[in-house]
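[Q] Does anyone have a clean structure-token version of this?
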Amino acid sequence: MRRTHLSRSALAAIPAAAGLLLSAAPAQAAAPLPLTAVVDRATTTPGGSFTLAVTLTNPYDTPIQFVYQSVQPTYPTTLEPGLKFTATACGTQTNGCSENVHGGIARYNVPLAPGASSSFSVTFTVAKDSACGPSTRIDLYTYLYYEYNAGLSNNSGIVNIPGTQVPCA
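[A] Here you go.
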């Protein structure tokens, strides 16, 4: 059986195509989130409170024009039996918080100019009858999504935030 010129060309092209696919550059990961978070107390006894402050800084040369951010307890925190806490105050340098999500959703005043920063704070109160102990902790995470470059670019991700230990008084 005789091979045609077309089938020989196709066979010769397979290694070349495979080489191009294998040499392709990997996709770039999104830039790290320009976010810092600080909790004002390492420990909080039942009946006490602590404040989480999160600061977003615009590292781009265009304004950040849309921001969505939520603060939630981590999964291990939700599994702590008898641990009770709630967000009791929300917002500094923001357009407030939504009441429909535990910990609130920051609604930043946008646009956020290049190089500018804006902070969001949430105060949590631990119930007086809350569980406590040497390994009882309230840890949080924040999900952040924002758009910049006239909406053509965005970045998002989750940042774990060490919270506060809840020792017994």
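[Q] Thanks! Anything notable?
[A] The CA atoms of residues 45 and 166 lie 5 Å apart.
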